[in-house]
Amino acid sequence: MIVDSDQNLRADVCNFFRGIGQVIEEAPNYATALKMIETVAFDIIISDVIIPGGTIRDLIKAIHSKNNDTFVIVNSDLNSVQEGVRAVKEGAFGILQKPFSIPELNFHIKKALEKKKQKTDVEELPERHRNVYQPYNFIGESPEIKEVFRIVDKVAKSNSSVILTGETGTGKELVAGAIHYNSLRSKAAFVRVNCAALPEQLLESELFGYEKGAFTGAEKLRIGRFEQADGGTIFLDEVADMSLFTQAKILRVLQEKEFERVGSNETVKSDVRIISATNKNLVEQMEEGLFREDLYFRLN
User: Fold this and answer.
1) Which of 51-60, 180-189, 232-241 has the lowest mean pLDDT?
2) Whole-angstrom Cα distance, residue 140 to residue 137?
3) Is the N-terminal amide bond of 135 cis, ω within 30° of 0?
4) Angstrom distance (rounded) from CA 269 to CA 226
5) Could you give the CA distance from residue 253 to residue 242 in angstroms, rounded to a whole number?
6) What positions does the domain Sigma-54 factor interaction occupy (predicted)?
7) Are the CB atoms for 269 and 257 separated by under 8 Å?
8) Would you state the pLDDT for residue 127?
């Protein structure tokens, strides 16, 4: 079942899973969700952390009081990530960042079902369903793509930073997702940031957050992407487009695992794995003074 006030999102998710032969119900609010769990023992419930008419905490309690074998996957946007983290502590299986892709959701569901099978001592899923490229439907039998699969599998087991290089459209974000969702951090957030999409001033606020009153329009505290990704992975796409100033702040996070929000002197600790990607030649960027050499070696 999917619980979400967004009718379009519910329709997209339901259409996909019904299209592959799965049974899925939908609820636009807390009251409808409660009625559904009274009559149906769901394997998986996907829910926004913001539910009209109720709270995610109460919904999780109600679900587990009826059927403790139901797995709950919550999703949140940047403004509600703290509620999402609390939901995981309250018993949710995992958390997704909005907007999420159908393959990303599908992989979370596969992991939950695999866990459910293990929990009930049913035969585990075949190895092919746990393959690192299955979540994102990588297709290929060539020696080159098989080598990519092998490297992803190896890298996923480590906690090292990773740089992915290649032309636009070659699937760098898919590889980053496969690394995260097959790592020990897979139950925590996978947060994506396109560094080329925002000007420097906005990118700093997006990455590190800001305090109320830090600048005109900052009406309340907002946590940044690094704080949202705590315990998980942050994917910095087009990392070569960051200014040298922002690069220096990223380097500090890598070295000292801490940062300050914009407008604050308070240090925030950060346990985040960084996966970055670029379509540019970073060696040439370093030679031209556009990319920090020390950051390159930390990211790589």
Assistant:
1) 180-189
2) 10
3) no
4) 10
5) 15
6) 138-300
7) yes
8) 40
Please tell me whether residue 259 adopts helix, strand or coil conformation. Answer: strand
108 contacts: CB under 8 Å, gap ≥ 6: 73, 93, 94, 96, 181
Number of other residues whose CB lies within 10 A of the CB of residue 94: 24
Cβ partners under 8 Å of residue 255, min gap 6: 298
In tens, the pLDDT along 37-60 reads 998 989 999 999 999 999 999 999
Q: What is the pLDDT of residues 115-125, one digit of tens each?
A: 777 665 434 43
CA 247 to chain centre: 22
Token pair belonging to 94: 């995992």
Tokens 């700093």 sit at which residue? 204
Residue 234 DSSP SS3? strand
Determine the length of the chain. Answer: 300
Look-up of token digits 């960051």? 242
Residue 191: beta bridge partners?
Answer: 234
Q: What are the structural domains of the chain?
A: 2-119 (3.40.50.2300), 142-299 (3.40.50.300)
Kind and range of the H or E element at 66?
Answer: helix 56-66
Nearest 5°: the CA angle 104, 107, 112 is 130
